[in-house]
Structures are given as C-alpha cells and as structure tokens.
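User: Continuing from earlier, I have the next pair ready.

Assistant: Great, send them over.

User: Here they are, in order.

Assistant: Folding the first of the pair now:
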Amino acid sequence: MNCENMYVELRNFIVYFFTILTINLDVSVQDIKTAQSHDETLVICRKNAESEKKLLSGTNNISWFYYENGLLFRKFQSPKINDNKLFNQLVVPKQYRQTVMKLAHDCILSGHLGTKKTTDRVLSSFYWPGIQSDISRYCKSCDVCQRTLPKGRVQRVPLVPMPLIDTPFERVAVDLVGPIAPITDRGNRYILTLVDYSTRYPEAVALKSIETERVAEALVDMFTRVGIPKEILSDMGTQFTSSLMKEIGRLLSIKQLNTTPYHPACNGLVEKFNGTLKQMLRRMSAERPKDWDRYLPALLFAYREAPQESLGFSPFELLYGRTVRGPMSVLREIWTNEEHEPDVKTTYQYVLDLKERLASTCEMAQKELKKSSARYKKYYDKKSKRRIFVPNDKVLILLPTDKNKLLMQWKGPYNVVERKGVADYRIDMDGKVKTFHANLLKKYTDRNQMLLSEAKSDRVTLACAIIEPENRDPSELSLNQEELLNILPLKASETYKDVDVSVKLSPEQKNDIDSVLLEFQDILTDLPGRTSVAQHEIHLTTDDPITNRPYQVPFALRDSVRNEIKQMLKMDIIEPSESPYASSIVVAKKPDGSLRICVDFRKLNTITVFDAEPMPDPDEIFSKISKSQYFTKIDLCKGYWQIAMNPEHKDLTSFVTPDGLFRFKVMPFGLKNAPATFNRMMRVILKGLAYTDSFLDDILLHTETWVDHVTELREVFQRLREANLNAKPSKCVVAYKRLEYLGHTVGDGTITPNDKKLEAIRNAPRPETKKQIRSFLGLIGFYRKFVPNFAAVAVPLTDLTRKGVPNKFEWKLEHESAFQKLKSMLIHSPVLRLPDLSKTFIVRSDASDYGIGSVLLQEHDGNKFPVAYASKKLSVHERGYSVIEKECLAIVWALEKFQLYLYGRAFVIETDHQPLTYLSKAKVSNGRLMRWALFLQSYHFRCVSIKGSDNFGADFLSRHV
C-alpha cells in the first residue's frame, strides 16, 4: 500500500469517528463570535470581560473573562488543580454545547467516562455558565451508560419485612431443588421442599420428575401430615402456576401467592432452607452419592431438632410443645441411667397444659422473631436507598441475556404501569404487563424528554412547614396576611440618617461622623448589594438529585407565601428553575411574631463536602479591645443575599413553591458552608485593618483614639463600597463608649452579659421537659465564664438530661434550688475585665475531693481583677488521685483551659509551691506525672507563694463542685 492510500485510509478513519456521532465540524471562527455576542446566557460573562473584574471562588480560585481576536475566553487558576496551572478556556455559546459534550463523552476516543472525568476533560479547553450541571445531566441521560451500568451501582431498596404468622401451617413456602446429580438408584433427581412460616418446620420429598401432576400429588401428601394451609408462596415456575395447581387451590381453598421474576429473596425462607438442605446432603451422602434420597428423613429430623436462630426454639418444640427424644437424649439416658417418673394426669388436664405451653412458647418465639427481623432489616437497610417510580416513568429491567441465563443485562426502556405493594411495580413490556421488584429496576433518563419531564414533575407542588415555639398561645398567631410575613422592600426605606450615632459625642466629633456617613450614604441602605469578591459554590459527594417530601401549608398562609416569592423575583433574589433538585420551604416564626420563609436544605447538606474555613473566635476579638475607647458596629444588610451563587451550582438551591420550582441567584440561608464562604469574603475585604474585626456580618471597629476611629471607619466603608456590599443603617451603631456585641456588652475595659439575655434568664419559666432543660442550660451556659462555680451548681439540672431519665421528670427541691441559684448568680454576677495582652496574667488553682477550679486574673491600679472563671467536676477515676496529685491536676487543667492567653508569654502562677515541688521530684514515678511535667515545660511562668487562705477564688470553685 502506497503513502497516498494510507493517507486516504487514515483520513476516512478519523472522519468516521466524527460522522458516527453526527457532529458538525463545519463551524467557522466567525460563527463562534456571532453566537457569543448574541447568546443571552453569556450576558454576565461579557460584562465581566468588559469590566476586567477578577472573581474569587472556592479556596483561592481566581477566574476572569477577556476578549482575544474577538473571541470570548475565560482564564481560571486554582491551587488544587495541576499545581496552580492557568487554564485558557473558550466560552461556548449555547447552540454548540451539545457538540462539545457529545465529543467529550460519546466519541470513541472519549470512552463514555463518568461525570467528573468528562467535566475535567471539557474544562481543560471550554467553559460556559452551568457547565457542571449540563454535563451531569448529559452523562446521566446517556443511553449507552445507562444500559451498561453494573448491577452493584444501583442501590437496593429498603427491606420490606414479611408478615409474622402466628398460626402453624397457615402460610407455607414451597420450591423445587434440582436436577441433582447423580440420579439415585430409585431414579430421583429433584426435591420438593416446604417450610412453615410460623414454626420453620420443613418437609422435603424426593421426586423423579417435576411435572405438575407429580408436584401436586407430593404437596397433597404433605398436607395429609401437617394440615391444609391457607396460603402457599412459590415462584413463577410452571409447576405452581398451571391450571391444575389453580384447581387444587380452588378445591382446597388455598390462596396462591407468587414471587416476582428473578427475585428469589422474596421467597427467602425456603431458599435459605434449600441451601442448608443441599449442603447437608452433600456431607451426609459423601460416601454413597447415589443414595442421597435415603438420607432425607434423617436430615429433616436433624434440622427440626435444632433451635432456629430467629425463633430461639426448634421446629419440634413449636409444633409439639415439647422436646422430642433424639440422639443426645438417648446418649444421656445410657450414660446416666436416668429414669423419668411418669407424670400422671387426666387427658383434659394434659390438653390444657399442652395448650398453655404451646401458647407461651409461640409467644416467646414471636418476640424473638420480631427482634431478629428488626436486626436484619437494620443491617440490610444500611446500604439501601428508597427508590420510587410513578406511572409513565421509563425504567430499565435487569434480565438474563438471550444467550446465557446466568448473565444479566439491562433491557428496555419500558413504561411503569402502576405500583403494586411496597416495592413491586407492574411494567408494560411491549404490550405484556409483568410485575418486577424495584431491585431489578433502574430509572431511565431520556435525553430528548429530560427537560420537558422535569418541567412537568410532581415536585412542583406546595411544600411548606411551620416552626413554632412550644406551648404557644393560639391567640399569638394573627391570620392577617399583611402581618404574617415580612415582605422585602423594593425601594430603600432606610438612609444614612437612620444610623445610631452616640449622643455623647462633642459637636466636632458629631460633624466628623456625619461627614463620613454622608460620603458613603450609597452603601447605607436596607437593600442588599451584590458583591463581586466571592461566589458561593456547593460541592457534593454524589450526583444523585436530592428531593424533599412536600408538606401541606395552611390556607391562611398561601397568598402570603406567593406574595413573598413575587417580591423575591422582583428583587432578583431568585429565578425560575428546571433543576432535578427540590427542597421544601419552611415558614419560621420570628421573635417579633412575624413569619419568615426559609428553605429546608438538610438533605442537601448531608451530601455537601464540608468547607474547613476557620471561623472567628469571639475570645480572640475580646482580647484585642481592652484598651479601646471608641466602638462602632456595622451590620450588613441581608449579608448572605449579597453573595451571588456560582452559576454552575444554582440548580442545587432549587426549592418548591405554590407557583413552581425556583432557584436562588444569591447565597441562601441554611446551606452548610454558607458561613465559611461569608467569613472568607470578610477576611479578604478587611485584610490589613488593625482596628477592625468581624464575626460573620457583624463588623466591630475599636480604637483608642478619635482620629484613628474616623480614619478606620472611612476605610471600612470604602472597602465595602469597592466590594459592592451594603450595611443596614438601623442596625449600625457608631462611636459608642460601650455597646453590645456577640451577646455581651463591652467597653471601659470590661465585659458583661447582655441585658436582654439577662432579662430572658430572669423571666425563664421552670423547665418541665428534657428539651426545656437543655434549652435553659444552653441559654445560661453561654455566660458560664461569669459564674464562678457553674459546673457545680448545674449538676442537679444536667443530671436530668442523662439517658434513661424520663422526658417528664419529677421536679425536686434540689432542682429548684439549682435553678434559682444559677439565675441569681448570673444576674448578680461580678463584672469581668477584658483581657489586656500587654499585662501579665495571673493563674490561681485549687482542688477538693470532688472538683478543681481556676481563676485567671490581671492587675489594674494595684488591684487584681478576674478575667475568667473555670471549674470542672472530677471523674470517678480522678477522685482516686492523692491530694497532691489533684493539686497538680488543677494547675495543668488551668493552663490548658486558658491556653489562648498563656501560651507563648510569661505569666504568674500563685500557689503554695507544694504541687510543683512534688511534680519535679516524683515525675519519673509514673507516666501520668511525666506527661504533666512535659506539658508544663512548654510554658514560661514563675511561681509566687501565697497562703491557702488568700487563694479564695479557686478554692471556692473547687469546693462547690
């Protein structure tokens, strides 16, 4: 073959790769340019290219759009991908996206790989908004991939327990075993087996053939020994479904039950017995294989005599009410010469005793069977997933291949006719309707009908729940629809004049603040902005769509819900969706009595990859402000709604409303990683500001001088303007000496509990349930550092939350005493000093028989003031320590508790020296003391000797545990 022929052959082969996919390669550069400029889905991309804005997403992912030779491109860079490699991606218009996906997935050189690998392949060269969801749907609807999916990749449905039968031989299961090789001398090749559902009593008959007549004759022979059952469960074999068998059932009034095809687990009782039967036969007839039928009676006796694991009794005991005399009984009688005296009683008395014994035995067996069924279902359902099909759904069925019945393959698609029972479905197979179990079915996604079917999905139904506090008064809920929901404003109702400015400022200071507020009045509004600094992304652990079960909504709320949705549409918060994901909406009651629409994202959160972005520590913030004289708090307006959703992940936020399916264009409340995204954005915006900290959307400015405060305030507003973030004026507090922040009141170098929280604690009613106890402990526990002996006083209440304590407990005097004492101590608690990192910390600790306590102090103006209290109840093991060891433990625990303030700086431990002296001498005596000694070596401290009477704070803590 010459070179020219080889070239022609190669060219034809390459063209074949593309022509079999009907891909149009006759697309010019000008066609792409024209399509990019007219594509409505690329409006945001074109705007970003014109503004040359860089977008930050994920963990330090950077992307931006640009034009090159008239074509729109995207540059993307991530430290997690190819060692921070920079990708140049062509932005694909909507009309050519199918071509790209077809070439990346369906082509012979593509190999029908999964969603992730196909996405990575496309993203290496191309990009468009929503690319990941588009590729996911494309791969999911691939006909070849759906037909060749391994059986194990389709999760089984939860186990449906069989009904418990309490009457012996009311329901029996039958099956045929064979052909068995070798044929016996009597010519038998098959075994007809029968098992009773109530007692697990088995019967087995050897047969020469399995014609319907022979099987029917053998069954009737069994019935003459055990009685005629009411129901017979069998597979779909012709021996059990023939007209003769139906006639026998009619004559004997027996209801015939059949399993679904290719699902032997439905008749699992007899199938499991068949396995045991064959194994026992193989072992018993190993020496004489052709006489296996002679061993059947002995085999059945052995099986009937052994206790069943699920029942706890043997079939003989459940059927006869006594233990039969078997080989073990005979052997014992021979070895021991035991002679049982006959129990003489009347026939009537014997019948009564037998009836009572059988009833009690069956009752115990039923209890054991319920336990074993529940246990088996628990383990089975761990790897199961509920899958429900509705009429007209297209499904693939796992059936044997045409050439080999042992090989299974997906066939179809076929239409679902109806659901039968819990896990069975009637399927239309080219005109013949047959019943199949759900484990043999897999939903088929038709690429051409996918979008249409989603638009008409049953998910577009009203889904709503109402969350209300316990013991609410029905009169509190007004049915006035104007008051039910806070309708979001379309026009700004607040201005910079609504900012709360301190009235204690001098006229010059007031002018300084007014000029700053006037300069930045554009960002002081109750309408949320839309930042370009960050986008929220949702990465999932599975591609299976999440849908929530809809809830009913009260009629009184429906119009209000619709009005809220309309307002959100007008504000560009949400948009219509055709996503396969759907979460329910929830109406939550706010403290002011109004209601708020939220979305229940709990199912979505369970499959969301966790974002490990660290959250701010309030203690670190408070440790910076001890010397500050001026404070300003800025609260962003609808902070989450000022962050846009990544276009590729909008579909994941879809939710169900009365008017259809919608998705968020901004980051909604309730998402698992929303706080992490918001905190990462604030960290970027406020980076480098020495006097500003933030906890989510609460920004705190703290300065020692007035000049610094005005400068810092102007800088923060400028950065918010650049980030296109707005602050709500009515929630901004400017230039105060003391203000409320994160549930505390700070200023003048001190920190105290919030007055409103203290009022709520003062008026807290007596708890009546475990939930109310936990709620009260959670409320008051937020301020436990203000209570010297919190752990000790709260013990009677915390004991009520233990496992085993009834939900409604007995309220005793000790509980009332602890309840009132906690409230009183917090209401009259001492004021704590804010930690001053420029001053030396002082640690005091002490131990008693049942607890240890510590106090962190600092000296101001010659006096020592507490910064924080801590106490701990000793465990049973720790109570066994010697007195001196408890003193050592108190010091080590105190340093661990206050590590945030003590590590890496010099501090003072006020003690009587005995614990540290003992630790230095006895540190090699055991491993525990050695670990404590090594722990103390990482701290730089000096000891100051004090008398035990002077160590009042820590001593008080330890002795009240």
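And the other member of the pair:
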Amino acid sequence: MESRRDFIKKLTALSGSMALGSLPGAVQRAFAINPDPGTTFMDAEHIVFLMQENRSFDHLLGTLRGVRGFNDPRFLRQKNCNPVWLQSDSQGNTYAPVRCDIKNTNVTWSGGCPHEVENQIGARNAGFMDKWIDQKTPKTMQYFTREDHPFYHALADAFTVCDHYFCSSLTGTSSNRSMFWTGKLRGLNICDLQLCRTKEHMDNTLFSLPGTCTWETFPEVLQANEVSWKVYQNQTFVNYLRRDDIEKALPGILKQFESQPAPAFHASSDPFEAILQIPEMIAAALKPLFEIAAKTYLNTDDLKIKWLSNFSDNVLESFLNYYPLLTEENRKVFKEAQSLWESLAPKTRDLHSRAFTTNIKDPLYNCLKEITLDDGTTMSVPAGDILYQFRQDVRNGELPTVSWLVAPEVFSDHPVSPQYGPWYVSEVLDILTSKPEVWKKTIFIINFDENDGFFDHMPPYVPSVQGAGKCSPGIDTDEELAKDFNSPIGLGYRVPMLVVSPWSRGGWVNSQVLDHTSTLMFLEKFLNAKKGNNNIQCSNISQFRRTVCGDITSAFRPYNGEKIVFPKPVDKEKFFAQVRRAKTNAQPGTNLLNPDDIEGIRSDVLNSTLLPKQEEGIRPANGLLYQLYAEACADKSKNQVTIALGAGNEIYGQTCWGAAFHVYWGFDDKKPRSYVAKAGAGMLTDSFNLSDFDDNAYHIVVHGPNGFSREFSGTVQDPGIGIACTYEFALQDARTLTGNVEIVVKIQDKSINCTHLVITDNAYGQPDIMVPLRISRYDDTITQVINLEHSLNWYDFTVSIPGNKKYYRRYTGHVETGLPGYTDPYMGRWDGATKPPLT
C-alpha cells in the first residue's frame, strides 16, 4: 500500500497542476509503453471503464484544438437568428459562454446546475436548444480551458478524444448509468407493478432503493459466458442509506411481498407471468434485508459519504439479482444477512461479490485522517487506499477481462465537490502503467455519465416521435419514447470520452456518434471475436441506438512501431492549498450581452471576441464510414417541398454506418424533425407545405454527424433543375472515393432561362466555379467535380443562380474515405502549414 505521504503528494501535485497546467508523469509513462508491433486493439486482454460525473463536452473540452467545440462553423441558429451559443431567458436577457478560472474563482466549490429529467428535456425544447437559461440558470454557460483542466487536455493530446459522444438519456445520473451497465432504462421494478410494462426509469429516485430493478444487466451476460469481470469501488453506497429513506418506502414494499426471491427473474419470457409469482417469491428476502437497512444504514457522516462511498454511482445496487444489501459488512454483523447469503447459489454469490468489489481488505478503508496542508489549514482525507483492491489485482496479475471503476464523490468530477477527479484518473493510469506488461494489453476508457446542467451546443440525436420525422423500417420508436414526458428518452447531451490505450495514441479525434451503449457494443464485438462466436449480446439495446451509435472500434489503429512526438509538459508550480484557498474566492461571473453585443456576434459569429475561442490547429482524425446524402426539391403541382435523406452503403457495404439527422425548417415555431436512416435502407422522404413558410418561400437546414449540413432555400418558382451533391469515385476502383465531391445538375425543364450556376466556396479560399447549363439533345445531366485536396477533404460551398436571390443550395461536411484524415481546417483556423503525422 502506498503511504499517506505518497497519497497526499500525488493529490496535491494533481490539484496544483489542475490550477496551473502541469502534466502528470503517468500520462508520459502510458504514452511511452509500446505494445508489440503489428498488434491491434483486438490483442488487448483487459478493458477498463471509468465513468466520471456531470460535465458536458463544451464545458470541459470545448476549447481543445481540433474538436467540434466553440469554433464549430456548422452551429445551429435559433428561432431568433442567434447562434446557439447565445442563450436567452424569458425576461429577454441573453448570455454567452463564460470562462471559469479554476484558480481565481471558487468555481470548484460552487456546485452544479439543475439536471433533473424535466429541465434536461426542457433545455432541449423539442430540438430548438433555446431554453438553457430558464431551465438551468446562467451558470449553465460556464466552461473551462486548458489552463483550468490541463490533465484532461493532456490526455486528449496524447490519446484519442471522442467529440461525438453523447450520454444516453435526457436525464440525470442513474438512468444514464443504467444505459451504461444494462443498455436500457425501461423495465420491471418490483415497487411499481402496475406500470411496469411501459415504465421508463427517467428519474434517479426510481433507482434509489436497492434490489428493486429486475431487467438483465450486461455483467450477467458476461457471467453466463464465463468472462471475468469486476466493479471496483471503495465502499458501496447502501452502507449510507439513511433511515428515513428506508422508512418511506418500506411499508409499501413489504405490503406487496411475502416470500422467497426469484432467481433470474428477468429471464421469464412473459414479464407478467413473473409478476404473478412475485408475492410468493420475494418478500421473505426483502423483509429482513430492509429491516437490516433500517437498523444499520444510519451512517450520516457526510465526510465519509463524500470520500469513501461510491456515491450511488454503481447502479447495480438497484438490481434484484445482485442482493446488494448482503454486503460483507452486514454478513459479519447480522445473522439474517449471513443466513440468506448461505442460501444463495454459488453463482449468485459470485455475481454479488464481483459487482461490489470493495477495499474491505484494507484495514483503513472505512477511515478518514486529518492532515495539515502547506498553508496551515487542515482537512480530512481517506486513511486507506481508495484503489486498494484494483491496485492489488493489477500488481498480482489478477485484473479481470472487463473492469468498471466507480470513484467516491470527491474524486468523481461532480460539481458538488472540489474537482479532485483528475487525481483519481491519473492514479488509475499510474496503477495500470506501473506494470508495463499489463498496460501494453489494456484499453482504458474514460467517459462521463451526463452533462449535469452544463450547456453543450450540439443537439442530441433522437428518433422521430409523434410524426415529427421518420425512421427506416425496423426501428421501433415507441421503445425510445418517454411517455410520461412526451419526449424521446435520448440521446442526451454530449459529454467527454477519452480512449486511452497503446492503439489510440497520438492526439487523435474520433467523430463517430457514440453513446453509453456503445461501450456494451464494443464489448460485444471484442469478446465475441476473442471467443470465436456471437453469444455475447446485449439484447436490451434498441435498434435506434444500434443504427445511430457506433461501437468505438473506429477509435483504434494498429501499432506498427511508429514513433510519435509527445506534447511537451509544462512545469508544476502550485499545490493543493491553492485549490483550498479558492473556496473563499469570488463566484464566477456571467457573460450578459447587450443588444449591440448580440448584433455584432450575429454578423460575424466565428470572429467575435465575445465568444470563446478554441486552440488553433488541426488534429489527426479517425477514418469514418459515413456515406450521407440530403437533397430537396419543390413540387409546384402540390405546393410542397420534399426532402430526401439517407445513409448509403455502396462504398463500404455492410460496414457502412447509419445516421440520424436534425431538420430545422421555417425558423419560427415549426417543430424540428428527426430522421434516422439505416445504412443501405434507401432514402427517407418527407414533405413540407409551402404555405407553412413565410411568403411560401422554403428554408430548410439539415444537420448530421461530423459537420454534415445541407441548406435549401427557394420557392415554388424554382428553376427547372435538380441539384445533388455526391461523392467522386476513383476511376480505377468503383468502391473507392477520391476525397472530392461532385455537383450533379439535371436539367428538368429545357426552357430554363438561366445560363449558368455559380459554386461559391464559403470557407476554404477557393475561387468561384461557373457551371454552364448547356442543354444537349443526348444528355440532360451536368457534372462538376470540386477538388478538395487543399481543404483536406472538407467542403463548404453554395450553389446559386445569378439574379435569383431566393434559390440556393449550401453543402458542408467531410468526404469520408474510410481512411485517417484531419479535423476541419476552417474550424481550426489552420494556416495550411504543418500537418500532424497520420500514424
């Protein structure tokens, strides 16, 4: 076990670096340990997950170089024409994002924002993304920079950051963690039998009682397939349930149940058949367990809860089959608990022990110790090693195939506590890299469960509900509808994710759409390949999520012995006492704008000094397998405009990805529409009445993944042409893209009175292209190739007709060749000089 002095030294060093920008040695060591040349991520033997708490992507990493953050040129404009970064309240006050100096304000002590399901859904406002202030308070606009959080920025510089990673649901912690461990949040709860078939657990309180949820969890799938796994925490949270929490729920529960528990309850083919058995099967277990809880879980020591417990972040404590109240501590004290434990099958006991792996073997694991800091102040810290068992398993070669780590509150990055989370992450990395033979075969994935209430500018992708959009056949949108809230369940807002491994080094960006269920899809693919079968499946994951969200494998690259230059670390200067002193600093301010400010931002969003700016430059980007299309045309006979959207698979076949699209139209009170397209399932078409637009002039904007956007404007008097933006195929290989796009013009009306089109580059400095509309008796189609080599396969151009101000088509995005490339040079203000190596 490390000494207290070592613990405090590491903690204070991390905290000081958090304030002033130092880089811990664990990152350098992790970067320096090479796997065997020629290996891929499929050669890994250990997958380690650490889900931290309550930070949005823009809030934590929005100024990081190369990611889709505050410089995003494909931002959403709101109904009032303001960019999405300007958020107004119901009183007409408008706020822009505000940086929170972690050293000179008390931001680390000032708490978070409202983030219950009602205000998570409310901030999204059906996709308009314009109610953040009313729902969250102006604090929602706070963000950090590298100076404030150098550790996470350093990890991104050294490994791979995912800038399209979304939490799973528009909720708080427990629902998202249910998605993380089980793939869903809808299921049977023994406390609510009447609504169990349709009940979606959108609120933390529905997970608050231990052992009441009954659907299958992914660790049970691993257990059934003999895959080793553990969930590591210092202590379980059930040790800290308060008497009043139990007493409020106990009478209603005990009234319903009066006998033995049901093993593998979720396995019943008909949930209602199982329900009928509950009164005879559960209460004999529940009654003594809750009596135990009422007697013993009276530890209301807030310091111990913050420093030692798992903060109720191990959602497996909510599931019946894990018997969460039968902790080792209780079994030592209460004969009822020990008796019930002995009656359980060995597999059930093993399930419990793996899910609630604690540090009980450390004699000081339940103790705090007061220390004196350099500035003379004192504070309480854990007396034991909060990573004791994880450290022992790594040291002894006993790390399982799959591990989940759950930090205590103080180390979870949650805004209710000072931000000591980077120390915990660094210490996990330090433990893994202390054994090079372990690290070179390990994948360490760090993500965050939800955004708290902090703003993020990217609308989360959701399925169409109640007719507001369409989905490809086979996608059941009902299972993604939160009926009690008349809202999609998710996706939720973007949160950070970092993939730290020997096969994801080099400061890359991955822009595939992902969510918490992606971690389970990754385990499916990884473990089935290891076992040579397809037996490991999470049946809870919906078709919507399997269509829209990837499996994280795109974040990895083979290691072939490349030498990568590691970013130069900066010096450490200050210690933990500075963070403590920050508690007495002033509250962070807000960025309240006046009308002139707003008008200035509107006129030049990307160059405004009133908005945050990202670090300049580009990053290497993982190859993606999106083949996206969106077009529109007016139909004079029906007085409508029709859009067509889709995800092709002609290039990448079965490996091609589906996608979701947001469609904004009218820019008034017209509800945005959502579309979900399976790869190769054909185009989704939908129509809009021109009479629903001002002056019968349509204006439609489509947003998709990785900067994909289309903008269509016109009237029923559009010229008699059809325009499409497609991808150029290589002459020598019809399944390979060149990286260029083609504008294909089809002459539909030979009496057209315009002579040419103009293609105007909006971002990358290329001259206008004139496209003559020459009519041939043999061919009514004109193709214009647009070379994108200068812009690294990124594009942003408008197709217009001289003299016709109402008609135009704007196309933006990136040609996904499936090969590694670079992030958007326009977003990164790239000077066109040095490019990072694609290794």
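Worth noting for the second one:
The longest strand covers residues 733-747. Confidence is low (pLDDT under 50) at residues 11-22, 243-285, 292-299, 565-575.
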